[in-house]
Design goal:
The chain is of the alpha+beta class. It has one domain. It is 39% helix and 17% strand. Strands 1-2-3-4 form a four-stranded antiparallel β-sheet. It starts with 13 loop residues before the first helix and ends with a helix. The model has no long low-confidence stretch (mean pLDDT 89).
Length: 143
């Protein structure tokens, strides 16, 4: 006697696969921008580290030479003129007993509109600007 046993098919239907792909797409669309902002916030330390070290070098320079320097190569141990990971362009302005060092976002960091530039000066004033040039010092410097 032959029995007709229907085998249940195994696997996924096309609808199930489409739903899974749609869910993955939605999760990716939400998480990638958040991850990018997280990475940009982490890269801000590149500017903060460079500026605080450069300000210390400026103080050493004035103690030895009687005036601040605008030569960026004198403001780091290795004479580099960009931040360690090259996320910020550095400008130095020095005249006698005052200086100002600015790190402006460049490359992939330009997307960080909340902290587009950081500045430190001879009195230790730390400022930061958004891309629209409004002040955002307390957020960017973490105070």
């Amino acid at each position: 006697m032959k029995t007709n046993i229907m085998k249940k098919s195994q696997g996924f239907t096309l609808i199930e696969l489409i739903m899974a792909i749609a869910i993955i797409g939605i999760i990716a669309a939400v998480s990638f921008p958040a991850y990018d902002r997280y990475r940009q916030k982490g890269k801000r330390m590149d500017a903060i580290t460079y500026l605080t070290q450069a300000a210390a070098f400026e103080e050493n320079w004035i103690a030895e030479n009687g005036a601040y320097t605008s030569d960026k190569t004198k403001l780091t141990k290795d004479g580099s003129t960009t931040t360690e990971h090259d996320n910020y362009a550095i400008t130095v302005s020095a005249a006698g007993s005052t200086f100002s060092i600015t790190a402006a976002a460049k490359g992939s960091q330009i997307g960080d509109t909340d902290c587009a530039s950081f500045t430190i000066d001879n009195v230790g004033r730390k400022t930061a600007k958004k891309s629209d040039n409004s002040d955002n010092s307390s957020i960017c410097w973490g105070r």
